[in-house]
């Protein structure tokens, strides 16, 4: 069929033609904004899930909801920057948000006060060639403590008061939250906590890998009461069918029932996998009725594309020892694996490979669902590792193969 009409979007964070299975989260976000707008409090959220389940897509949906509600939006993708760089980023983004909330020529006392607090916040981030690019004098005694949490709290309160005066709100949406330093996550939680106490229309909503709930709890003990941590996963069977068939239907193309069943089985309902398989099926199909044969014909191209992009970019970042650790995990299966079992497969002691495990967690390739266990952050990564690294020299794997061959 015509590639120009292909309705599937297997791209990082790209919104699909049809977003399904996320009504609970979008409703919760809408209620949160409505409550804050009315001077009431509500638990914000940090969405967690594996790679490819649609966390970034959901954040983009939150952006659309917030703008429809006339909220100002700041979007940030977290990176492993030091606190000084974090201050610079927050200053630049929040300054722009203040100017969108209220142009400088129409600032009230609250608007100017928020600008002065932002100037004070930026003062400690003026080295290395960075300068505050506006002539607003800094506030005295606010956002100038030299403590990131206290300073960001002053900024959030000042911006919240300015937004409240305008009958608006400000939503800070942060993707890849797990890459924030502990001090930065703690500062954000502390700042949001104060705005909740003041009943101000400002909030922080994040998305990240499954370990975020634990990291937030470690940062501030009250995080579990301040936030909800909805986990999004593969779609239900019905929602997976909709995600596959509805985009095609918009182009006048229908799926045979057995084609849908096979496609859902292959993708296991993971949103990104559905988009990739749908894209490849569209490219091989020749009629406006997609059959099981079309899905079977597209499966090899689908797997090759996942291997060469979605999976490969993660493996390419790993060192030889990190690759060996992940390959040993894959040998044990897709479930979370005990650290001691992985070490045994590698022919080592747990203490010897513990630093490698920690590095993989820090890189976002593994997470810890339970104490002493680790799991891949990407679905089906175990199968990919076995395909991609079939001959890795790991003593226990070699022993198992010799035993099997015998």
Kindly provide the radius of gyration, computed on alpha-carbon positions and rounded to a whole number of angstroms: 24 Å
Distance between the termini: 50 Å
Fraction of residues in H or I helices = 55-70%
Average per-residue pLDDT, rounded, comes to 90
Strands ordered across the widest β-sheet: 2-3-4-1-5
Largest sheet: 5 strands, parallel
- N-to-C order of helices and strands: HEHEHHHEHEHHEHEHHEHHEHHEEHH
Structural class: alpha/beta
Cα shape: globular
Provide a count of the helices. 17
Beta-strand content: 5-15%
Number of strands: 10
Low-confidence blocks of residues: none
Spell out the blueprint of helices and strands.
Elements: H1 23-37, E1 44-48, H2 55-68, E2 71-77, H3 83-101, H4 109-122, H5 148-165, E3 169-175, H6 182-198, E4 202-208, H7 212-219, H8 223-226, E5 227-228, H9 237-250, E6 254-255, H10 257-267, H11 271-284, E7 289-290, H12 292-315, H13 320-332, E8 337-338, H14 339-346, H15 350-362, E9 366-367, E10 373-376, H16 381-388, H17 395-405
The gist of it:
The protein is an alpha/beta fold. It is built from 17 helices and ten strands. The model has no long low-confidence stretch (mean pLDDT 90).
